Amino acid sequence: MLTPSNEQFTNAPDPCGPTHVGIIMDGNGRWAQARSLPRIEGHRRGVEAVRRAVRSAIDLGLRYLTIYSFSSENWSRPAAEVSDLMGLLKRFIRNDLADLHRNNVQVRIIGLRRNLSADLRALLNEAEELTRGNSGLTLVVAFNYGARQEIVEAARKLALDAAAGRLDAAAIDEAALGARLDTAGIPDPDLVIRTSGEQRLSNFLLWQAAYAEFVFLPMHWPDFDHAAFQSALAQYAGRERRFGGTAAPAAIVKSAS
Ligand code: IPE
Ligand code: IPE
Ligand code: MG
């Protein structure tokens, strides 16, 4: 369950803060290994960290939070671990959906559905349907997600539309491809956080993160808390985003002096 809001938190969005944060939740296995526990225990504790992160995102006034929960490459793990991860997502939705809905959270799932079990697909649909009209935080769950397969899928849709005469191939632009990604309608992430000390994207939002800022935290995901979230946002606040342009005038003056 989401814990009640703590008084020290504010709900007002920071105008200089990120609109959309993506999190690569990594290090559950190593967290467990360091405690001589089975990897599943790390994943269970990881779900608690997800609840904390959602609570923090609401309290910090974020509009979008995307959490990377299962990648298209994670099928290569032992069958028992894959099955544990599927089970944890089911349990998370069953236990937390009502609470998320009460907190005005809109749930969106990105990733392939067709190779998931029928009961999991039904739960994912239920989560999206129930919360479709909510206007608070949008929680995007990247499950069975891989950015390359997402881009391939979008390219296939463009090709089919062009072949059917619905689209002029010469007019294909970034917006046309972006509209066919799973994230259509969701702004690009401003900040991507990865825990566990690894510094790579592992096939997460390759298209959308073109100009994201990156914060790599040494802690493992089960230890992620509100203070860690705040420290990542503080690092983000110190960055200067240029989007290929030149530095802002104030920064030029500073670097020249
Ligand atoms: C992240 O933790 C959870 C998933 C990728 C599903 P890991 O399971 O990758 O943990 P490490 O990286 O092996 O420690
Ligand atoms: C990335 O973590 C995927 C998720 C967090 C769901 P991995 O643990 O699968 O990534 P690699 O294998 O270390 O790159
Ligand atoms: Mg990992």
What's the architecture in CATH terms?
3-Layer(aba) Sandwich
Which series of helices and strands comes N to C?
A: EHHEHEHEHHEEHH
User: Can you tell me the overall shape?
Assistant: globular
Number of helices: 8
The average pLDDT value, as a whole number, equals 94
| CA distance, first residue to last residue | 52 Å
Multimeric state of these chains?
Answer: single chain
In brief, what are we looking at here?
The protein is of the alpha/beta class and 257 residues long. The chain has helices spanning 28-33, 39-59, 79-102, 118-131, 147-163, 174-178, 226-237, 249-256; strands at 20-24, 64-71, 106-110, 138-145, 191-194, 213-216. A six-stranded parallel sheet has the order 3-4-2-1-5-6, with helices on both faces.
